[in-house]
Every structure is written in structure tokens, then in C-alpha cells.
Structure to design on (452 residues):
């Protein structure tokens, strides 16, 4: 069979890809840069966002929160007076362990896209399935907490390979853990050689400025400093 | 429609339930007590097992390890000279984010069930889908790390409701976290009132003796102390 035919057939069958492309078109039309933020449960995505959004001067940011249940995260972000929408995968979407393009699409009418420079989509806490579903994002960022151990790149390789940036979070806890940072970074490079990484503590604020710079550079499409 | 007919139809359609029941029969015949151990990635399941199995005198234990990729966990357990089998959900099972009854069944011929008193099935690190799939276990135990935050029972309610015991791990880190243990336990009781819980540090060994007692009592079907 001709290779190209197979490719076309796969594209036709991929409903998620079709909807993700439609989301992309909407994001591009509105001129908004979209980050798909992923991590294991409790790695600190929401705390990181709270820290980050407070000091993002001149950038208009919005957040789409994904959780199986509750509006706890959206409530925390709403305190910052940032446009935020919560998607619960439980009642409407069968308790899914990830966001997909259609869930994101269902939330777009509730967000003032035209008034945003940056939209962060905080995915469901899970290191497996979220990496399998494009939602129309420009960049995929994962938060990897040092409390989770050095072996995680090998155990969840798709997630670590799928991301454009790894935020190594909770580094304030390093003195209290049996965690070898060099070995972790070695493992990370074995799975995704040279991937961008930032060492951060969302709790103390260490490294947050570099992450804000990354976001601003990304949203304004400026090249990285040499 | 008669209610009972609907029930029977559901049972027929639930292939996972059918296979889980077959696993149960095999476990019962062999006289082995089976624990399905679940948690988020990096909550400390394997470190907990390493600590626990070292001192389980008089009990013959085996372990079935579930991961998307790698044999890192099985290698760690094998050092303890305990029968262990690794299931990788990636090559054989489409990268699944959980173990199901059929995956467990596929591993049973590799385990000396007749020579075991206790089998621990360490599930894939994930707080959503593992709770949806019975595998034939007697008890479901979840490990919940204090580094993950107080809100997790509300965000992953099915997991916290599905378990018979919650092991609250990494309590050695409490002095270094903004984590209110009382509030967490309150949240836990709101989601699963009165569920058994043990405060543990797999790293320092604190609380491990109580968890060993729980396992021994459970495997020998002794009633809990009044």
C-alpha cells in the first residue's frame, strides 16, 4: 500500500488531532501563546502558577484548569484576578485521567481569548496519558518534583520526551531528601537529550524569575539568549 | 426492565471483573493474601516495600511490579531475594496507565503462588485509573505522600474511596513543608469517613512496624485489636 495513503487515513481517524488543530487555529487568530502544563499529582503546578502569574507584568494571562473533580485549583487562581475556567473530567467526561482537545474546545467560549497573550492549560495530575493528547498547545511544559525520585524519566519516558521544558520543582527540599540531582539530570538527558530545564522552588520563589523569562520570551516569540 | 436482568448483563459485559474473579479463585486456592498497592508517581511505594519486606519474619511474600516501562522497581525488590515479576504496560499493553486483571493474570504463571502467604501488586503510579480496575485483590492500599498537598482526597476521590488503608508517607518531611496534617486527615474523612490510616516514613522507618502488623494481621485474617 502507498505510504501516503496510510498517513492520510491515520489523520482522518484521529479526531483528537482534528480538534486540536481547530483549537490551534483559534489560538493563532487570537494571538495567544498556549502552554500545556503537565505533572504527577502534587508536583506543584498550581503553586507554581500562583507564584508566576503574580509577577507577569505586561502580559495578559489566562488559565484553564483540568481536574477529575473539584474547583480547588480554579478557586486559587481566581484570587489572582486572572480569567480562569475549570474543566472537571468526572461528571462530563467519564472520569478521564487527562485533558483532550475536545474538553479544551468545550471551555474556549468561556475564556476571553482575544484579550490574552498567554493561556496556561493545567492538565490533570498524571504522568502517563496527558502526554498522549495534543490539545492545540504551542509548548508542553512538565513539572517534575524532586520528591518523586531520580528514576521517573525512565518510568514515564513518553511524558519526559513529549515536553519542551522540564521544571524541576521543590528544590528547597533537596537537603532533606536522598535525591541525587546530578543523577536525575543524567537520567533526564538519557531519555530526552538536552531538553530545556529550570531548577525551581515554587514555595520559596527560587528560579521563578528564569521561568517567567522563559514564558515572556516564548509568548513574544523572541529567540533564547545565546 | 427488571433490575436483576440489568445487573446480570453488566456482569457479563465486564470482562475485567470476570478475569479478576478467576485471579481471586487462584489466590484463594493458593491461600495467598493479595494487596493492590496504589499511589501517585514517586509517593514511595517501592521504598516502602523494601523496608517492609526486610522484616516480615515468618511470612513468605512475593511482589508483582507494574510500570509503563523499565524494570527498576523489580530490580530493587529482587535484591531482597523475594519472588518478583515485572509487568510493563508499554510494549504488551499499549502504554496503559494502570494494571488490569488480565495483565495480572498474564503474570501469575511466573509466580510461585503456592509458596506465598502474601502477594503485593505494586500498581502503575497514577491516582485515577488504577482505582477503576479490580485485579482480584483482597485489599487495596494507597500510599499518599505528604509532599502532594492536603487537597488530594478531593481531587482524586475515587482512589481515596476505593482503598481499605491509606498510608500517609514521607512524614519525616513534615517540618519542611506547608502541609497541615490535621486538615489533610479532615479532608480524608470527608471523602472516606473513618478509613484506616497509618502515618509512616519509609525513609526513616517510622511507623513501619504498625504497617507490618497490619499486613500480618491481614494475611492471617486475625481481627484488629480492639
Amino acid at each position: 500500500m502507498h505510504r501516503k495513503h496510510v498517513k492520510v487515513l491515520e489523520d482522518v481517524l484521529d479526531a483528537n488531532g482534528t480538534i486540536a488543530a481547530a483549537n490551534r487555529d483559534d489560538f493563532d487568530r487570537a494571538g495567544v501563546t498556549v502552554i500545556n502544563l503537565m505533572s504527577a499529582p502534587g508536583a506543584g503546578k498550581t503553586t507554581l502558577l500562583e507564584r508566576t502569574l503574580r509577577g507577569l507584568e505586561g502580559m495578559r494571562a489566562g488559565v484553564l484548569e483540568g481536574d477529575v473533580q473539584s474547583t480547588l485549583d480554579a478557586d486559587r487562581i481566581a484570587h489572582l484576578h486572572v480569567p480562569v475556567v475549570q474543566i472537571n473530567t468526572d461528571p462530563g467526561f467519564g472520569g478521564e485521567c487527562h485533558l483532550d482537545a475536545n474538553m479544551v474546545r468545550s471551555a474556549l467560549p468561556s475564556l476571553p481569548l482575544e484579550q490574552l497573550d498567554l493561556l496556561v492549560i493545567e492538565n490533570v495530575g498524571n504522568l502517563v496519558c496527558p502526554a498522549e493528547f495534543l490539545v492545540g498547545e504551542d509548548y508542553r511544559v512538565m513539572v517534575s518534583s524532586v520528591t518523586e525520585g531520580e528514576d521517573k524519566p525512565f518510568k514515564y519516558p513518553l511524558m519526559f520526551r513529549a515536553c519542551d521544558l522540564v521544571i524541576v520543582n521543590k528544590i528547597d527540599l533537596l537537603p532533606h531528601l536522598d535525591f541525587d540531582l546530578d543523577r536525575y539530570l543524567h537520567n533526564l538527558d538519557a531519555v530526552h537529550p538536552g531538553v530545556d530545564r529550570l531548577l525551581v522552588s515554587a514555595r520559596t520563589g527560587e528560579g521563578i524569575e528564569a521561568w517567567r523569562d522563559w514564558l515572556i520570551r516564548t509568548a513574544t516569540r523572541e529567540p533564547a539568549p545565546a
Residues 1-6 of chain B have pLDDT under 50 and may be disordered. Chain B is about 40% helix and 20% strand. The CA atoms of residues 58 and 117 of chain B lie 9 Å apart. Chain B has one domain: 14-220.
